[in-house]
């Protein structure tokens, strides 16, 4: 009886230890496959009349911290997952919260840009007036930290108007690292005038930077109303995927889709390795992807 009690106690300790290891997050991240989802219901187009059968799907990946149990015992990780070191997933000087915020902004911009690309491909005239350089991320410890914020729009450098990210970079690189720049920034309804120092770029010590990532800010006018809302999906790659290709290929395969379009090159090679019979098609652009979908008869 005492022996049985001892065995039961030992098993209880092991179960409790495993529960603790499962509950405690570790340092690195897991990329986990998620099934592809049909876009129907996520995209609303004014006056649209869908024709034919079949559907277009988007793919995404679950990303979360590993647990100590998964970190130490790989066999406990979800099927098809990949362990990604924190140093790879989070750029230097970027916190997890900043990364989440950045990917949320990326999907918002994708939802705004996608209608422009689609309508122009259909021959519609779409007006997209450049307004400046949109701040999408601020590096920790950089001159911009505490001064610039995501969603700020930089419209001038030293009083000279800038309408694109390229014009902003050109204006800043006219000086040496360590020099000060004066930025005119629109934040909501406010206009701010900020003075920022510069530091050497990590890839080029002679190039000055303030420590931000930028995208194009534009005033977009569509000829018809289009609404896209992918809910909790974050990041820019739900369309033609270029991150987490292994997991996205597995997710597409598990969803039973007929064909999976991916960017050509290394992305295509990785998708092929995990296709398991799924047809993988490499494309170099949206136009090429559209041409393939409109000229090939797929099983529905």
Structure keywords:
8 helices, globular, 300 residues, 2 domains, six-stranded antiparallel sheet
Descriptive notes:
There is one protein chain. The chain contains eight helices and 17 strands. It has 300 residues and is of the alpha+beta class. It folds into two domains: 24-122 and 224-295, no CATH class; 127-221, Pdz3 Domain, CATH 2.30.42. The strands form six sheets. Strands 7, 8, 9, 10, 11 and 14 form a six-stranded antiparallel beta sheet that branches. It has a three-stranded antiparallel beta sheet with strand order 5-1-6. Helix 6 (245-254) crosses helix 7.
In short:
The chain has 300 residues and is of the alpha+beta class. 31% of the residues lie in helices and 31% in strands. Strand 10 and strand 11 (190-197) form a beta hairpin.
Number of helices: 8
Taken in chain order, the helices and strands follow as HEEEEEHEHHEEEHEEEEEEHEHEH
| Portion in strands | 25-35%
Structural domain tally: 2
What helical percentage do the residues reach? 25-40%
Terminal-residue CA separation: 64 Å
Name the overall outline.
globular
The class by helix and strand makeup works out as: alpha+beta
Uncertain regions: pLDDT < 50 for 5+ in a row?
none
Q: Strand count, sense and closure of the main sheet?
A: 6 strands, antiparallel
Please compute the radius of gyration using only Cα atoms.
Answer: 24 Å
The overall pLDDT, averaged over residues, is 83
Number of E-state strands: 17
Topology:
Elements: H1 2-23, E1 25-33, E2 37-38, E3 43-45, E4 57-58, E5 61-67, H2 68-72, E6 82-84, H3 86-89, H4 96-121, E7 127-138, E8 153-157, E9 160-161, H5 165-172, E10 180-187, E11 190-197, E12 199-201, E13 204-209, E14 212-221, E15 226-228, H6 245-254, E16 259-263, H7 266-273, E17 279-283, H8 286-295
Parallel strand pairs: 16-17
Antiparallel strand pairs: 1-5, 1-6, 2-4, 3-15, 7-8, 7-14, 8-9, 8-10, 10-11, 12-13
Helix pairs in contact: 6-7
